Amino acid sequence: MDILSRILIGLVIAAVGVAVVFYSQGIVDFFGDVEWADRHLGSSQFFYKLVGVCITLIGFLVMTDLWNTFLAATVGKILFR
Predict the structure, then answer these.
(1) Cα(first)–Cα(last) distance of the chain, in Å?
(2) How far is the C-alpha of 17 from the C-alpha of 1, rounded, in Å?
(3) What is the pTM of this model?
(4) Tens digits of per-residue pLDDT, 31-70?
């Protein structure tokens, strides 16, 4: 994948994550409450905000081409000892 498409795809993914963070109440209204999140995290809105931050992080990893390095440093050490 060339640099321009990688940056554009990463920006789109990061923008979706930011939108999930900003519109978390609307997402809760549309999809409903997540019972697990209400029990363990306090609210479904906080859960959706955490999901949005994770999506934004993934977008920046894709944009900077650090996705493979991140996976190798975290999950790779667990799975491939």
Answers:
(1) 29
(2) 22
(3) 0.86
(4) 999 999 999 999 999 999 999 999 999 999 999 999 888 8
Using pLDDT thresholds of 50, 70 and 90, give the confidence band for residue 81. low
CA angle 49/70/3 to nearest 5° reads 90
Domain that holds residue 26: 3-79
C-beta neighbour count of 23 within 10 angstroms: 14
Encoded tokens for 10: 């990463």
Q: Whose CA is closest to 60, among 23, 31, 20, 17?
A: 17
The total of structural domains in the chain comes to: 1
The structure tokens listed for 58 are 């993934």
Question: Cα dist. 67→29, 30, 60, 61, 75 in Å?
Answer: 32, 31, 9, 5, 12
Q: Are 55 and 23 in contact, with CB atoms under 8 Å apart?
A: no
